[in-house]
Inverse folding.
């Protein structure tokens, strides 16, 4: 596990995402580099291909991207609240329930990509605003402990995970 997170408490569920992030990166570099690689991958996706799903019950590329946007926004809310020492046990969310109501397939892929980039810029600005003490703060979400720093690496690892899925199953 990452040296920077050795004293941080978070659910085992999130270790799979955190482990995907290069150990030599700080959280800001991880968020920047992962997103750069994602954009390189998205450059290969055409508007027509955006509505492609590799199986009947699977998300389209557009839905996958909107899921990543939704998840990043939710995790940024958690990071902000924990950084500000909010000790409320935050609820979880059912990501599968969000997708059918996202309207992703009725949107243009280029608009979704633009939103994705704007959300990431906002995420990076948020994490740059956190002091070292804020990054160490923790809270609970869905009954699981998390620290602000862990959330940053989870966001990055979640993106890596889905880009791998996109590469392997969609492109």
């Amino acid at each position: 596990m990452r040296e920077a997170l050795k004293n941080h408490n978070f659910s085992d569920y999130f270790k799979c995402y955190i482990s995907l992030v290069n150990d030599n990166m700080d959280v800001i570099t991880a968020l920047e580099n992962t997103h750069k690689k994602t954009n390189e991958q998205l450059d290969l996706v055409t508007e027509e291909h955006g509505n492609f799903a590799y199986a009947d019950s699977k998300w389209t590329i557009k839905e996958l991207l909107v899921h990543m946007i939704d998840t990043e926004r939710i995790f940024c809310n958690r990071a902000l609240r924990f950084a500000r020492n909010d000790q409320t046990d935050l609820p979880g969310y059912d990501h599968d329930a969000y997708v059918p109501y996202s309207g992703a397939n009725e949107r243009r892929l280029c608009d979704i990509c633009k939103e994705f980039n704007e959300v990431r810029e906002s995420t990076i600005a948020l994490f740059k605003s956190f002091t070292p003490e804020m990054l160490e703060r923790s809270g609970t979400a869905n009954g699981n402990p998390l620290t602000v720093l862990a959330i940053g690496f989870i966001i990055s690892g979640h993106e890596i995970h889905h880009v791998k899925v996109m590469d392997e199953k969609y492109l």
